[in-house]
Amino acid sequence: MSTATGQVSPFPTPERRRRDRSAKREAILDTALELFLEQGYHHVTLNQVAERLHITKPALYNYFAGKTEILFACWMAGFEQAAEAIARIEAGPGDGLTRLRALIRDYGLLMTTPRGRCLIRFDDRDFTPEQRDRISACKKQVDAAFRSWIAAGIEDGSIRPCDPKMAAFVIGGALNWIGQWHRDDGPMSPQAVVDDFADRLTKGLATD
Amino acid sequence: MSTATGQVSPFPTPERRRRDRSAKREAILDTALELFLEQGYHHVTLNQVAERLHITKPALYNYFAGKTEILFACWMAGFEQAAEAIARIEAGPGDGLTRLRALIRDYGLLMTTPRGRCLIRFDDRDFTPEQRDRISACKKQVDAAFRSWIAAGIEDGSIRPCDPKMAAFVIGGALNWIGQWHRDDGPMSPQAVVDDFADRLTKGLATD
DNA sequence: ACATTTGATTACCCATGGGTAATAAATCGA
DNA sequence: TCGATTTATTACCCATGGGTAATCAAATGT
């Protein structure tokens, strides 16, 4: 990887080449996502994406099969973040209420980032039917996490008995909405928003 | 308007003609809205809209200046419903909490109808800058109604002191989200949903 | 050195769909 | 009855933008 003088070798190893390629894919993804969120999917041309990366449109096809593939990859990148948060909380300690609050904070924070925003700002109908099916399954996973920890909280006594499904709709709706109104240049820091939301959304649920 | 025999005259008055024209405009609006919600704005062609009305595309231009005008008119029709609900509640009796609950119910019900759904399912970036400005002003009105009645409730003692802005974000988000998940052929009636939501969303706010 | 693979470019294709004449038919007012 | 207006139709135009073919250059590895 580097010579004795500390310089990076100009002859990259196969490993390095794989990383380069992957980095380029990520760069395309981030640029496209940025544009999609700025202007809306249908107003973004692949020429724009390429231009912002200082390449030309056909070069994109070395990394993605088409425009919808890019859109789908963006969405999946966002979902991975959510899935990681869920797995992390699942693996950690705490009763139902504690876990629910943690998820509200993590998911809410995600909604203030481009990766998270695309989960709800993209229109389902812009995906192919196959992509839609996979996305639908992913959404179910997230919803299931909310519901299961609410149910767990009722079970362990940390949450007052209620309908987990409806509670999850309220909480999910409030959180997803953050992706619509929150501005990075606004007066409220993401952390302040989600702390407030975690309190507010569990106030009516907690048993204490 | 009609003869002594009860038959409608085949010679419509100017008044009748104006009504006919207006009815046609409405028909275009309803059909377009239906298609926009089914397939998404960018996947709907004006030919489709025309076809469903048994006319041809250029005929639409007798009633609307273009595709975005139709989209805008749909949005405004939805907003009028919201504005009416707000005015009705404003004119009626009740303290802050009562009015807030009434708005939650009415706005939530609206979100289960096509007219209401378009308020949040349409993408702002598909409108012209001028249209966007007007829409932005309308949205502010709705948000202001939520905030003002929360503030009024705090003032009159029916609602516990809190930040009306954040409370309105939570409530608005949960309600807008209804437009995304509620299906008419689903298990929950619109009325059942909003009754549940009205309770749930004011449980943490009420002083009692 | 040299054939091979990879990655990028230029130049092009072409379906789509919003929008516009030019025109015809129905309706109106007088 | 007859010109004027309204409303609809047929036949187009054409900018847009996703996607492809042919080609070129550069790194690869044997």
From TrEMBL, chains A, B:
Q: Where is the composition biased (Polar residues)?
A: 1-10
- What GO MF terms are annotated? DNA-binding transcription factor activity; transcription cis-regulatory region binding
Asked whether the keyword Transcription is assigned, the reply is yes
Question: Which key words are in the record?
Answer: DNA-binding, Repressor, Transcription, Transcription regulation
Pfam families named in the record: TetR_C_24 (PF17932), TetR_N (PF00440)
List the residue ranges of the region (Disordered). Answer: 1-23
InterPro entries noted in UniProt: Cro/C1-type_HTH, DNA-bd_HTH_TetR-type_CS, Homeodomain-like_sf, HTH-type_TetR-like_transc_reg, HTH_TetR, KstR2_TetR_C, Tet_transcr_reg_TetR-rel_C_sf
What are the residue boundaries of the HTH tetR-type domain, all occurrences included? 22-82
DNA-binding residue intervals:
45-64
Name of this protein: Transcriptional regulator, TetR family
